[in-house]
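Annex B. Sample input.
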Amino acid sequence: MDTKQKLQQALKEAMRQRDDVRKRTVRSVLAAIKLAEVETGKPLDEGALLGVLQKEVKMRHEALEGAQKAGRDDLIAAARAEMAVLQEFLPEPLSPEALETLARETIAEVGATSPREMGKVMSALMPRVQGRATGKEVSQVVRRLLQGD
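Annex B, continued. Sample output.
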């Protein structure tokens, strides 16, 4: 069962259980997936689905930060609850050690030796870590490794 089917099944289950937070969150993600499919003109592959999910988590994280600055406990709780629902559909995140190992392997494969070649490394590495690490985390590790080598 792919991620989209899992989301559709979770929506049905949330409706049966009258779980409003879960229902609202899953509907929001399915709408974002549908929008992406309409924009591309074809169904999304698993990597693209995980990308949409990560984007949704990032949006909730930004909303959480804004709510914390504003001191809005109700919005903080809502954002955390929605993030928890979304995390269920994402694969297990990579540990820093595993991410560094993958980055080292990719750097060796593309033959990068300087930070100027970071784009080559990132384009080869991002599909491998899709859904398991953010682009920011990956770029920090790659930059550090290229500057250190």
